[in-house]
Amino acid sequence: MLALKPTESQKKEARVVAKQMGELKNSFMKGARNYDGILGELVSLEHLGAEKQSCKDFDGRLKDGRTVDVKTKRTKVEPKPFYDCSISEFSLHQRCDVYVFTRYNNQSDVVYLLGYLSKPDFFSKAKKYNKGDIDTSNNMQFKTTSYNVAISDLNPIEDLL
Asked: How would you classify the pairing of strands 67-75 and 98-105?
């Protein structure tokens, strides 16, 4: 796991793009967390030297040509290895090669690059939860069908460099 401070230019760009996005279809937070997601993308893609290519299927392209979709959650604490990384059923249509998982701590203004998995590896390791299920490890009730993998099951982000 890598902890990175976003630059002022990354934060400014994230604010502008998040405002332009508005509320996305199937958004849990009705657009309120767009900034977090965009910031996670910007910090991750820049660190990886990837070209930003936002579309419905992925967020960027690595130098080797693989496409990357960045998934970000907001946090107030440093992530622990047993915390989950999630893909909602609403994202299953995405055609990307790699998922990069991040957490944005809005209290300390740090983006944690947690790791990555190829799309096939993610779904081979993931535990599926249906809408309404309760994850007994943290008592969270799922708002939609989702697939979870623990941070400890991710590949180190450095392996993508």
From this structure: parallel
